[in-house]
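Two proteins, back to back. First:
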Amino acid sequence: MIDVELAGVVVLVFLFAGLVKGVVGLGLPTVAITLLALILGVKEAMALMLAPAFFTNVWQGLAGGQFLPIWRRTWTMITAAVIFTFLAVEILARADAEVLRGILGVLLFAYAAISLATPQIPPPGKKEPWLSPLIGACSGTAAGLTGTVIVPGVLYLQALGLSRDTLIQAMGILFTIVTLSLAVAMGSQRLVPLDLGILSVVALAPAFLGMALGQRIRKRIPEAKFRRVFFVVLALMGVYLMSRALL
């Protein structure tokens, strides 16, 4: 039986998470999992995130016309991310809820702090052939434990020197494939109960509505200003999750 109060919370969370994604091009899984983890466990939040994250990123990953060039450059990273997502979900199934909240908090704070303090992450250069699969392994581990690949996956993609549109498509491809892997891995571990699976599908509507609103807002406010506020809030939420896990 689906809890009506929880369904209302899920709709509001994904409406807001979609709005953030519409404005800055990323953040739906991160915002949704973080907000839901304040109420539920990280495992439950990850289950609710699966359908909205996958379908919103399919659209993002297909738009742009650069799929093959992106794939040729990032396939080792993505392949490693998929493998380590499956391995990490094995740990997720047995992990303590507060430990997972703490890990999520650390990743959120790290991502926000680096994004606020570092104007441009240096490109990998000659290190890219061996650094890409290493970053993919770390990203897959983070995804399997917390549902998010922002650290270090998104940071690494930002360092590759891609154009804005190509970067957004590259993030969409990474998110889509990792989210699909996460769904399969969590399903095999029976971490997606039927009621949460249904709610995840229900969350598609507010997520897409939020994205549409966010894209309109993007044209009205300075994106750089919105990003600063977003990362400051993300850092504070990370600190809260860490403190909650410790205390």
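And the second protein:
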Amino acid sequence: MTKYEIMFIVKTTMETEKIKKTIDSMKKIVTDGKGKVVETKEMGERKLAYPIKKELNGYYCVLKVEATPEVISEFDRKAQLSEAILRHLIIKLDEE
């Protein structure tokens, strides 16, 4: 399996419970595809550099995962469709 780092920004205009559910559902995409979430870092609410979809703040979350390219493409697809996620970035980490 390949190692990836995924960063995504969740809308902060939702309730805290919905933000946590969104993060859990994104982790579940990886685990359902037989991937493994190695580390989760919630960076909290921060001001965005510029408005995205009329939002001024976002809740940042970083996941370090081990997964197949198919799982990552499914994560990418669902992140694009999600109303709760403003932006996401997937980086393939170098093998050590």
